[in-house]
Description:
Elements: E1 2-6, H1 11-22, E2 26-31, H2 34-46, E3 49-53, H3 59-66, E4 71-74, H4 83-98, E5 105-109, H5 135-145, E6 150-154, E7 159-160, E8 171-175, H6 191-201, E9 207-208, H7 209-217, E10 229-235
Helix pairs in contact: 1-7, 3-4, 4-5
Amino acid sequence: MRIVVFGATGNTGKRVLLQGIKMGHEMTAFVRNSEKLYEQLGEHSAKHVKVIAGDMMDPVSVGEALAHQDAAILAAGHAGQGEEFIRIVDNIISQCESVPSFSGRVWVMGGAGLLDIPYTDLIGNNLPGFPPEYRNHNRNFERLQQTGLDWSMMCPGTMTVSREQPDSVPLLVTTETLPVPVPETIREYSEADIAGYLFSRFHELNVAYDDVVTCMLEHLELGGPFKGKRIGLAYQTQHSTVR
């Protein structure tokens, strides 16, 4: 497939490029600094990537990068950037909507605080004690809900450079809800107590960058099971039990 990656020099984006190359995809990197990308990829991998240096806030540049692509992966920016982060995502999504030759399969990065908490009508980002900048992911999610694109939102916990679990431990992938079991009695907790409980469990959501990237690259088909869904990831360890 032809895949364009926005934010291709970041921790997630550079791994998308490398895995995509190994899987035989035609990869395009949209970056601000092409020299940084070449340094990261190395000479061999750089030969297999089309590089576009541009401004993610420029509709024309973004639109040209999306032309004739089969999928776009938005790994650009972070919640701490505030309004700039919101504008970057909105501009890229808007161009995905308006470029006729773009097929519409889009992956956007979010966070575990966006996922539904089982047995409640709550998400972590709205609970007391959660960093307020995380709610910028909420706004990007609301933007996606307004589009007719074929999108998915990846919502991992803390991403790590390497796997903290053995390769034999399988990855659990969930749609919409947190990928760790919680007791049904959580519905009786106050919001503050729910927040405290989740904070005590968040280490169970640590997941390697490479596993996050693999999940996205393995689900690029149009109309697949992840269409219009928030996706959670966790390792299925023997400790992943209801407490």
